[in-house]
Amino acid sequence: MKLKIHTQILIAILVGVVVGVVLNGHIERAHVAGERLARADVVCKYAAGVKLIGDLFIRLLKMIIVPLIMASMVTGVVSIGNVRSLGRIGLRTFAYYLATTLLAVAVGLVLVNVIAPGAGVEMPASQAEAQESTRQPPTAGSIITDIVPENIVGAMAQSKFLSVIFFSLLLGVALSTVGQKARPLIELFDALNSVMLKITGWIMHLAPFGVCALMAYIVGTLGIDVIKDLAKYMATVGLGLGIHACITLPILLLVFARYWPLRFFRHVFSAVATAFSTASSAATLPITMDCLEENAGVSNKITSFVIPLGATVNMDGTALYEAVAAMFIAQAYGIEMTLVQQIVIMLTATLASIGAAAIPSAGLFTMMIVLNAVDLPLEGLAMIWAVDRLLDMCRTAVNVWGDSCGTAIVAKLEGEKLT
Ligand code: ASP
Question: Is the pLDDT of residue 131 over 50?
């Protein structure tokens, strides 16, 4: 009997956690036994194998993102046919992105005010990490100018997804407008799209191994003490993400797409699990597209538009996390945040989530936008650094789940029949 890929991935996560726990025991013992090795060296010694497999899996996914975004967006825009339909889809998509992001932040802010996880927390200030936080955060202006590439080849080489998306949209519209003469190029992109999807399918078969290795590495190298110290903060973020993922988004899915949430979740489970283990919406993008087209029956016309854009700008989980983390820092420093300041946090957390790249820890970095806006000390970042990876995994899973629900909703509103 051949197990379905999402069942294989579920088993892979469980096996990965078990292997990770065993690995963690080895690493802690070797470290405590004082083999005169620093913790990082002990980790290297024991976890190198699983790290290698995990890294290879992520590289395979990253390898195809740029050609996949380009080929599928160009074909998608050409098949949408006219600028008016494209505009309508675009409007619906952005309305969904904005509404869900704001809803997520609102949930986060209510919870952080009620639970107050930062009250009474000691403020450590680790030198190295505090220095890290002096890097320049992106500004609203730079986020906008980055959309238009100076050089498209450079943008592709540097994985600047927004620039690649912008250029592909333009290319698609131009190809439709030119018509007959552009036929060979349209067919070329169409063929490239099919080929990229084929490669994605192959990589999907390796996903159980990749996910298992990534989980084993993360659990294996986790410092349990740090988690204990920040348990209340992590629980607040986790609860907020849980409410958004299990209540808000399913209600929207049910109302607007008439899709049974559990059934839909099964269809996109492989993508959500990959997002969880890689902590990167971008790396997960090929799998998200595959799940939505193959399992949920969404057309390439819609996925090719909503998914690449969503992976880059629609990050509900990240926005929620940034708002909670900023308030946590304020509470830990004993700084009162007024209602107006909390509204500023809400808006800047939304902006910061749009500006965050779809890669691990990006949200932590763009959080400087939020902290700057309400004059909170950037050193506060140092204390949440240690537990960022775990929260990043959770928020990335929610980000990808949000993109997936949005795709189903837009497809339904465009009159598609979903399976
Ligand atoms: N890792 C997240 C993503 O790829 C972004 C972040 O919040 O750091 O969606």
Answer: no
Atom of ligand 1 nearest to the CA of 317: 7
Task: Name the pLDDT band for 36 (thresholds 50, 70, 90).
Answer: low
Domains of the chain: residue spans and CATH: 5-413 (1.10.3860.10)
> Measured from the CA of 279, which atom of ligand 1 is nearest?
1
**pLDDT of 59 higher than 60:** yes
Ligand 1 centroid from CA 363, angstroms: 6
What's the rounded Cα separation, in Å, for the pair 280 and 292? 18
Q: Is the pLDDT of residue 58 over 80?
A: yes
Dihedral sign computed on CA atoms, order 62, 68, 70, 76: negative
Tell me how far apart the alpha carbons of residues 164 and 39 are, in angstroms, rounded to a whole number. Answer: 40
Q: Calculate the CA 58 to chain-centre distance.
A: 14
Please state whether the predicted TM-score (pTM) of the whole model is above 0.70.
yes
Would you say residue 120 has pLDDT above 60?
yes
Burial of 389: CB neighbours in 10 Å, binned 0-12, 13-18, 19+: middle
- Nearest ligand 1 atom to the CA of 281 is 4
Helix pair 388-413, 362-373: axis angle to 10 deg: 90
What does DSSP assign to residue 137? P
- Cβ of 290 below 6 Å from ligand 1: no
Q: Is the CB of 366 under 6 A from ligand 1?
A: no
Whether 267 is in the pocket of ligand 1, judged by its Cβ within 6 Å, is no
- 356 C-alpha to ligand 1 centroid (Å): 7
Q: How confident is the model at residue 149 (pLDDT cuts 50, 70, 90)?
A: very high
Q: Is the CB of 248 under 6 A from ligand 1?
A: no
| Contact (CB, 8 A) for 298 and 86 | no
From CA 326, how far away is CA 112, in angstroms rounded? 10
CB-based burial label for 280 (10 Å; 0-12, 13-18, 19+) = buried
At 80-110, the pLDDT tens digits run 878 888 899 999 999 999 999 999 999 999 9
How many A from CA of 355 to the centre of ligand 1? 11
| Per-residue pLDDT tens digits for 308-320 | 999 989 999 999 9
Tell me the pLDDT of the chain averaged across its residues: 89
How many angstroms is it from 359 CA to the middle of ligand 1? 5
Ligand 1 probe mutation, 324, 359, 368, 384, most atoms within 8 A of CB: 359
